[in-house]
Amino acid sequence: MSVVPLEYLLSRRSTKFLKSPGPDESQLAQIFQAAMSAPDHGRLQPWRFALIRGESLGRLADMAISAIKAEGLPLTPEKEASNRRWLEELPLLIAIACKIDHSNTKIPEHERMLAVGSAVMNMLNAAHMLGYGAFWSTGLGSYVDEVSENLGFDSLDYRFMGYLAIGTPIKDLGPIQRPDFTQFVTEWTGS
Predict the structure, then answer these.
(1) Most buried pick, 26, 29, 139, 141, via CB within 10 A?
(2) Where are the beta strands (DSSP E) in 56-122?
(3) Beta bridge partners of 133
(4) Would the annotation count 56 as a binding residue?
(5) What is the DSSP letter of 138?
(6) 13 a known binding residue?
Protein backbone atom coordinates (compact mmCIF):
# COMPACT_ATOMS: atom_id res chain seq x y z
CA MET A 1 0.00 0.00 0.00
CA SER A 2 1.21 3.48 -0.81
CA VAL A 3 2.37 5.74 2.01
CA VAL A 4 0.41 8.73 0.66
CA PRO A 5 -3.10 7.50 1.69
CA LEU A 6 -1.80 6.73 5.16
CA GLU A 7 -0.36 10.24 5.40
CA TYR A 8 -3.78 11.64 4.47
CA LEU A 9 -5.39 9.51 7.17
CA LEU A 10 -2.89 10.60 9.81
CA SER A 11 -3.25 14.29 8.90
CA ARG A 12 -7.08 14.43 9.03
CA ARG A 13 -8.57 16.70 11.65
CA SER A 14 -12.00 18.03 12.43
CA THR A 15 -12.47 21.57 11.17
CA LYS A 16 -15.60 23.34 12.39
CA PHE A 17 -15.25 26.73 10.74
CA LEU A 18 -15.81 26.31 7.03
CA LYS A 19 -16.77 28.45 4.07
CA SER A 20 -17.48 28.06 0.37
CA PRO A 21 -16.62 26.43 -1.84
CA GLY A 22 -17.85 23.05 -0.82
CA PRO A 23 -17.60 19.89 -2.86
CA ASP A 24 -19.14 19.90 -6.32
CA GLU A 25 -21.64 17.20 -7.29
CA SER A 26 -18.95 14.81 -8.53
CA GLN A 27 -16.91 15.19 -5.35
CA LEU A 28 -20.03 14.87 -3.21
CA ALA A 29 -20.82 11.60 -5.01
CA GLN A 30 -17.32 10.35 -4.14
CA ILE A 31 -17.82 11.32 -0.50
CA PHE A 32 -21.13 9.44 -0.34
CA GLN A 33 -19.68 6.46 -2.19
CA ALA A 34 -16.91 6.29 0.41
CA ALA A 35 -19.64 5.82 3.03
CA MET A 36 -20.77 2.69 1.20
CA SER A 37 -17.42 1.01 2.03
CA ALA A 38 -18.09 1.02 5.77
CA PRO A 39 -18.21 -2.23 7.74
CA ASP A 40 -21.83 -3.31 7.95
CA HIS A 41 -22.82 -6.47 9.84
CA GLY A 42 -25.64 -8.18 7.96
CA ARG A 43 -25.43 -5.71 5.07
CA LEU A 44 -28.26 -3.72 6.56
CA GLN A 45 -26.99 -0.43 5.10
CA PRO A 46 -28.47 1.52 8.03
CA TRP A 47 -27.00 4.90 7.08
CA ARG A 48 -29.35 7.62 5.90
CA PHE A 49 -28.40 11.15 4.91
CA ALA A 50 -30.23 14.39 4.12
CA LEU A 51 -28.42 17.20 2.27
CA ILE A 52 -28.92 20.72 3.60
CA ARG A 53 -27.44 23.59 1.61
CA GLY A 54 -28.13 27.07 0.32
CA GLU A 55 -31.18 28.81 1.78
CA SER A 56 -32.17 25.58 3.54
CA LEU A 57 -29.38 26.18 6.07
CA GLY A 58 -31.16 29.29 7.34
CA ARG A 59 -34.45 27.39 7.51
CA LEU A 60 -32.68 24.65 9.48
CA ALA A 61 -31.41 27.25 11.96
CA ASP A 62 -34.92 28.68 12.41
CA MET A 63 -36.51 25.24 12.81
CA ALA A 64 -33.87 23.79 15.16
CA ILE A 65 -33.66 26.87 17.37
CA SER A 66 -37.44 27.01 17.64
CA ALA A 67 -37.58 23.29 18.54
CA ILE A 68 -34.83 23.65 21.16
CA LYS A 69 -36.68 26.54 22.79
CA ALA A 70 -40.01 24.67 22.65
CA GLU A 71 -38.37 21.79 24.55
CA GLY A 72 -37.31 24.26 27.22
CA LEU A 73 -33.65 23.45 26.68
CA PRO A 74 -31.05 26.10 27.52
CA LEU A 75 -30.00 28.24 24.56
CA THR A 76 -28.37 31.57 25.31
CA PRO A 77 -28.73 34.43 22.83
CA GLU A 78 -24.97 34.17 22.26
CA LYS A 79 -25.18 30.46 21.40
CA GLU A 80 -28.12 31.09 19.07
CA ALA A 81 -26.20 33.87 17.29
CA SER A 82 -23.10 31.66 17.10
CA ASN A 83 -25.08 28.82 15.48
CA ARG A 84 -26.61 31.19 12.94
CA ARG A 85 -23.20 32.70 12.03
CA TRP A 86 -21.73 29.21 11.63
CA LEU A 87 -24.50 28.16 9.26
CA GLU A 88 -24.29 31.39 7.24
CA GLU A 89 -20.71 30.57 6.23
CA LEU A 90 -21.25 26.85 5.69
CA PRO A 91 -21.74 25.57 2.13
CA LEU A 92 -23.04 22.12 3.04
CA LEU A 93 -24.46 20.21 5.96
CA ILE A 94 -25.44 16.54 5.84
CA ALA A 95 -27.91 15.26 8.44
CA ILE A 96 -27.02 11.73 9.58
CA ALA A 97 -29.35 9.02 10.84
CA CYS A 98 -29.33 5.32 11.53
CA LYS A 99 -32.29 3.37 10.12
CA ILE A 100 -33.69 0.88 12.61
CA ASP A 101 -35.04 -2.19 10.85
CA HIS A 102 -37.47 -3.50 13.47
CA SER A 103 -37.96 -6.76 11.55
CA ASN A 104 -34.30 -7.70 12.07
CA THR A 105 -33.74 -8.83 15.63
CA LYS A 106 -30.44 -10.62 14.94
CA ILE A 107 -28.21 -7.54 14.70
CA PRO A 108 -28.41 -5.17 17.69
CA GLU A 109 -29.03 -1.47 17.30
CA HIS A 110 -25.59 -0.51 18.58
CA GLU A 111 -23.96 -2.46 15.72
CA ARG A 112 -26.08 -0.54 13.22
CA MET A 113 -25.02 2.74 14.82
CA LEU A 114 -21.39 1.64 14.64
CA ALA A 115 -21.87 1.01 10.91
CA VAL A 116 -23.25 4.54 10.48
CA GLY A 117 -20.33 5.93 12.48
CA SER A 118 -17.93 4.04 10.23
CA ALA A 119 -19.68 5.40 7.14
CA VAL A 120 -19.36 8.95 8.45
CA MET A 121 -15.69 8.38 9.24
CA ASN A 122 -15.18 7.29 5.63
CA MET A 123 -16.93 10.49 4.53
CA LEU A 124 -14.68 12.59 6.78
CA ASN A 125 -11.61 10.92 5.29
CA ALA A 126 -12.88 11.29 1.71
CA ALA A 127 -13.62 15.00 2.25
CA HIS A 128 -10.10 15.46 3.64
CA MET A 129 -8.52 13.60 0.73
CA LEU A 130 -10.43 15.87 -1.67
CA GLY A 131 -8.97 18.92 0.06
CA TYR A 132 -11.97 19.95 2.19
CA GLY A 133 -12.42 20.41 5.89
CA ALA A 134 -15.19 18.60 7.71
CA PHE A 135 -16.76 18.44 11.15
CA TRP A 136 -19.22 16.01 12.74
CA SER A 137 -21.53 17.97 15.02
CA THR A 138 -24.11 16.73 17.49
CA GLY A 139 -25.31 20.26 18.20
CA LEU A 140 -28.20 22.20 16.69
CA GLY A 141 -30.97 20.09 18.18
CA SER A 142 -29.49 16.66 17.48
CA TYR A 143 -31.20 15.31 20.59
CA VAL A 144 -34.56 17.00 20.00
CA ASP A 145 -37.08 14.66 18.35
CA GLU A 146 -38.84 17.52 16.53
CA VAL A 147 -35.61 18.39 14.72
CA SER A 148 -34.92 14.86 13.49
CA GLU A 149 -38.56 14.37 12.53
CA ASN A 150 -38.60 17.63 10.54
CA LEU A 151 -35.51 16.37 8.70
CA GLY A 152 -37.39 13.19 7.74
CA PHE A 153 -36.05 10.90 10.46
CA ASP A 154 -38.98 9.78 12.62
CA SER A 155 -37.72 8.78 16.06
CA LEU A 156 -39.58 5.46 15.91
CA ASP A 157 -37.59 4.29 12.89
CA TYR A 158 -34.33 6.27 13.07
CA ARG A 159 -31.66 7.32 15.53
CA PHE A 160 -30.56 10.81 14.58
CA MET A 161 -26.77 11.11 14.86
CA GLY A 162 -26.07 14.75 14.07
CA TYR A 163 -24.63 16.60 11.11
CA LEU A 164 -21.57 16.46 8.91
CA ALA A 165 -20.38 19.90 7.80
CA ILE A 166 -18.12 20.03 4.74
CA GLY A 167 -16.41 23.02 3.14
CA THR A 168 -13.20 24.96 2.77
CA PRO A 169 -11.45 25.69 6.06
CA ILE A 170 -11.65 29.39 6.95
CA LYS A 171 -8.05 29.28 8.16
CA ASP A 172 -5.17 26.82 8.12
CA LEU A 173 -4.96 25.21 11.52
CA GLY A 174 -1.61 23.58 10.81
CA PRO A 175 -0.64 20.11 11.94
CA ILE A 176 -2.32 18.60 14.95
CA GLN A 177 -0.45 16.90 17.77
CA ARG A 178 -1.89 13.45 18.40
CA PRO A 179 -1.33 11.33 21.51
CA ASP A 180 1.05 8.38 21.35
CA PHE A 181 -1.07 5.31 20.64
CA THR A 182 0.89 3.25 23.17
CA GLN A 183 -1.05 4.99 25.96
CA PHE A 184 -4.16 3.16 24.81
CA VAL A 185 -2.89 -0.30 23.87
CA THR A 186 -2.24 -3.34 26.02
CA GLU A 187 -1.41 -6.84 24.95
CA TRP A 188 -3.52 -9.69 26.25
CA THR A 189 -1.58 -12.95 26.42
CA GLY A 190 -4.16 -15.22 28.00
CA SER A 191 -1.94 -16.12 30.89
Answers:
(1) 141
(2) 92-99
(3) 167
(4) no
(5) -
(6) yes
